[in-house]
Structure formats: C-alpha cells, structure tokens
Write a structure and sequence with these properties.
about 325 residues; alpha/beta; ornithine cyclodeaminase, domain 1; Rossmann fold; 2 domains; eight-stranded parallel beta sheet; seven-stranded mixed beta sheet; globular
Amino acid sequence: MTASNAAVSFVSALAVSEILDWKQVIESLSRAYSVPHGPMVSPLRTVARNGRMWLRSLTAIPPGARFMGGKLFGMGPKPAINYLIPLFEQETGELRALVDGAFITSFRTASTSAAALDVLAPKEELVVGVIGSGQEAVAHARAIHAIRKIRELRIFSPTPASRARFAKTFEADTGVKCVATETPEDAVRPATVVVAAARSRDESPILYGDWLENCRSVVSVGSTVPEQREIDTTVVERCDLIVCDVLDEVMHETGDMIAAKKAGIGFEHKCVSLNDLLCGKIEDKVRNARMPMFKSVGAGIQDIVCAELAYELASKARRLVPLPIEFYRKTI
C-alpha cells in the first residue's frame, strides 16, 4: 500500500446552499439522463435496519462524469440525520471529497422533477399548485421557476403560518403572484402543473384525481417507501403516462402504487423511465399524453451529479475545505 497524493476536501452545507444554481443543476441532471444507463449505473438503494435504527445508501457511477460515489444517511432512536456524500475519481478510484448532502437532496429532487417537466409540461406560462410548504415544496417552486414563467403560484399547507410565509417569501424573491389557499383542493383546481411535495400526518392521500380538471402535468415526490402515502389511487388512474426516476422502486415499493394495485388499477403499461424520456425514446407517448405524471423516489445518480457540480463550483469559488487526513491507496 502507498500513501495517496490526492488531497481530500470537504464541501459544507452552507457552501452548497450558496453556490448551487437551479439552472445549472437542472442542465447537469438533464445531460446525465440524456445518455443511456446500464442496469447498474445507479442501482437500487439499500437499507440496513436494526430495531428503530436504519441506514440507507444510494450509489452511482454517472456515465461521462468525473466522479462516482454514494449518499449515506441514517437515523437512530433520537431523530437526527446527517447526509454524507463521498466522491471518488472514476479514473483512479481515489477519494477526492466529502460533501455535506443536507441541501443536495432538495436541490437534486426538485431539479430532476424540473428536468422531467421541461419535456412533459406545456411550454407556456403556468399556474402552479403546490401542496406542501417545506424544503421540498419550496425547492420545486424555485426549480420550476427556472424552466418556465409562472403566472401564479398557489400554495396549500395545513399550517397557515407556513403557507403564508412561503407565499410571501417566494413573491418577494421572484415577483410571481402567490396565493396561500385554505384547502389543498383550492390550490390544485386552477393549476396547470400540480406538485405534491408533502406527506399527510396519518399517511392518507393529499391529492385526488377529481381535483385535476385543468392539470396537464403532475409531480409526486412524497411517497418513497411502502408505508408512505401522498396521492390517491384516482390520480394514478387518471394520469395516462407515469415517468419514474427509478422504475422498479416506484412501481413496486411506494405506498401510492401499492395502493393502486390493491384497488385493481393497472398502471404498469403507463410507466416509463426518466432515462428513456430524456433520451428521446418515448416521444410519441409524450405527444399523446393528456396528463403525464413524474413520480420520484430519488436515485444515487442525482446525488452524485449534483455533488460533483457543487464540488466544481466550490473549487472555483475557493470554498473547498482541505481535510488534514491521508488515505492509503492499495495498488491492485
């Protein structure tokens, strides 16, 4: 074994939040999904469990990128989470950076949704309805604003103060008219694009198909495991094209789709991969779709693409923090 000559750097959550740009992240993810992926480029997530403790990992080797890596995070009996993203050089396998992934997740989730919507959503001014007022909901509003002009943003959250704060801040930052609504139905009915980015407290659906009279694209990101619910089975039934970032996990491991299958609603024939969408393999299906939905559970490739961009921007801005550590390299 020999000592590695490569310096290992740290990219802080603060640096990530200050240097990432929505358009750059969306463009980077669009490029990453616009080349064919082999079956193991971004494999299914793994979760280790022991009682109330769990540890999840997502890994990826993005084609044509500099880095490969993963995201690792977990939770114990006392709820607190750190997100760690190690980046390794694809060429040599050497560890190059540790990235705090606290803000990577919301950036990559919303930007991946925006990359899908850039193909699926009408190329016109949008009325956007958002259910949720947390980090994911706010991130989606900002990501959509980066790809389309928003005529009106309609927001529902069960906490009046939270939805009012979201509306006030977004309108002040962007000049977009924002309306905080009293009910989720009121937020959704006039909208041409609907984003569900919040789980209910009791895991019952928060979005229903009969609210989608004016809707032309749906995004759902809040049901990522079998125990979670976000959209009603009527939404699955009504959408005629379902684009999935991780096809198998969305179809078989999310509470929304499990409930739809139990209700006798067939959806497998409507499901396609985001990779196929952005590679241009399903143009006829997109052209014929009246109400497509993008459904996301998150994937390692999204984290690594976003973390690589954060590393590059941090390097240019001299925001990398050198770590006083030395890894040994085993030559094989």
